[in-house]
Automatic annotation (TrEMBL):
Xref: InterPro entries: EF-hand-dom_pair (IPR011992), EF_Hand_1_Ca_BS (IPR018247), EF_hand_dom (IPR002048), Recoverin (IPR028846)
SMART domains: EFh
Source organism: Uria aalge (Common mure)
CDD domains attached to this UniProt entry: EFh
MF terms (GO), sorted A to Z: calcium ion binding
Domain EF-hand: 66-101, 102-137, 147-182
Gene3D superfamilies assigned to the protein according to its UniProt record, in alphabetical order: EF-hand
Keywords: Calcium, Metal-binding, Repeat
Name by which UniProt lists this protein: EFCB1 protein
Domain of life: Eukaryota
Length: 194
């Protein structure tokens, strides 16, 4: 069922304010894309939005993402109310940060993605998990886990300012502000520039 013109206009107006990085015509396009994805998906949330699978397919086809763990985390970062469904508001507001967020917004977003258990820290184990997934398996003599442990140690050395063996948001933010390349230190969770 297509959205009424008036409802669409209301949505465009309110999202034009909350998703600051898009203009109104972009917001409208994203809402239409959202409606198309929902209509094509026949999922159980079809009245309110779409589920993880549709979202992952979109991340994969539009942004070339392939890492299951990270795609799942991106889904959770978008799904602000944790109802396992991406609503149109979550979609547009999420994409606003995902595609055009300020450095501050992207730091907050990446931190959320990397904090796998949501306790406010990126632990050594979490870094290990993500790096293990995002690095290509090299057929080699040595144990790949050793190399990943070394990388985790390097990351902690460089980013753990208060030396408590894990990264708080403040550690992460300071590290990324000093060195922007560290934003996606633990795996690609933002679209590449193209």
């Amino acid at each position: 069922a297509a959205m009424s013109r008036r409802r669409l206009q209301q949505l465009v107006d309110s999202l034009g304010r909350s998703a600051r990085h898009f203009n109104k015509s972009e917001v409208e396009c994203l809402i239409k894309l959202f409606n198309t994805l929902v209509a094509d998906s026949n999922n159980r949330f079809a009245t309110v939005g779409f589920d993880r699978n549709v979202f992952r397919d979109t991340l994969h086809s539009a942004f070339g993402m392939t890492d299951d763990v990270l795609m799942d985390r991106v889904f959770r970062a978008f799904d602000k109310d944790n109802d396992s469904c991406i609503s149109v508001v979550e979609w547009v507001e999420g994409l606003s940060v995902f595609l055009r967020g300020t450095l501050k917004e992207r730091i907050k977003y990446c931190f959320e993605v990397y904090d796998l258990n949501g306790d406010g820290y990126i632990s050594r184990e979490e870094m290990f998990q993500m790096l293990k997934n995002s690095l290509l398996k090299q057929p080699s003599e040595e144990d790949p886990d050793e190399g990943i442990k070394d990388l985790v140690d390097i990351a902690l050395k460089k980013m753990d300012y208060d030396h408590d063996g894990k990264l708080s948001f403040m550690d992460f933010e300071k590290a990324v502000r000093d060195e922007n390349l560290l934003l996606e230190a633990f795996g690609p969770c933002l679209p590449d520039l193209k």
